Amino acid sequence: MSKTVSNVLVGLFAALIVLLAVVAVVIARDTFGGGDEATAEAVAEAASATPVAETESEPTAAPTASPAGTATDLPAPEVLEFPTNTPAPTEVPTDTPVPTDTPEPTATATPIPPTQPPPPPAQPTATPVPPTQPPPPPAPSNVNGLTGTHFALQPRSVFAVNQQIWFEFTVSNSSGAPVPFGSLGAMVRRDGNDVQFKNSWGGNNDAIPANGLSADDNLTIGTPGNYTIRLVICFDDHNTCVNGGGTFHTLSQEIPFSIP
Questions:
Q1: CATH topology assigned to domain 146-259
Q2: What is the DSSP letter of 97?
Q3: pLDDT tens-place string over residues 86-125
Q4: Which residues are CB-contacts of 106 (< 8 A; sequence separation ≥ 6)?
Q5: For all residues of the chain together, what is the average pLDDT?
Q6: What is this structure's pTM?
Q7: Of 15, 81, 124, 132, which residue is 20 to 30 A from 231 by alpha carbon distance?
Q8: Residue 57 and residue 45: Cα distance in Å, rounded?
Q9: How far apart are CA 203 and CA 237, in angstroms?
Q10: What are phi and psi for residue 173, nearest 5 degrees?
Q11: Where are the domains of the chain?
Q12: Residues 230, 184: contact at Cβ < 8 Å?
């Protein structure tokens, strides 16, 4: 291959490179909406100023320079505004509260459960009062010269409710004269209280003879219980005596008995 041919090939190759560069710029403009004016001018300058390699002329031929491609006027490239990389917002550090020393809870005293209260002092039990003994009957006495020399319950007595209880008595008179009286008879007593009187003599202006008086009589009791019986005499008016308003004088000892 001659040197001339070689130089021609080099020039063609350079023109091809410039053409490819122009095509690339056009494609870039169409793709991205235009290019930068400076870039287009630079490409144009590159296309127009690309030197063609000089070939050494053979002695027989004058060196010829390959014509360089003329740069065509390209439209002004559009300026592409590429989005700038917006920096990610930085997190504003928040003030982390410094942990405070939590005070240790004060130990509260555990309440001690109340102890069982002592039982109340035992109330002193009332000492039962022994039943009072019924007062003793009046002792036999000598009244106006009269005394009871005999008083007794007869065997024929029936000690039951509303049954006849027989008694007998003798009254002596030491006055030497008749002694008038209001009522003479038997007094029944229960629990220390006189509860019943049986009039045996009196009511007719009676008087105990000077030589005394002996008699018997009976009475009935309608309530069961423990009783005593004794001989008594009353010198008040007969009606006053039998109605409980007179004064009775005891002439004998008491005789106890029971009605079941």
A1: Immunoglobulin-like (2.60.40)
A2: P
A3: 656 666 556 666 666 666 766 666 666 667 777 777 776 7
A4: none
A5: 78
A6: 0.50
A7: 132
A8: 28
A9: 8
A10: -120, 115
A11: 1-79, 146-259
A12: no
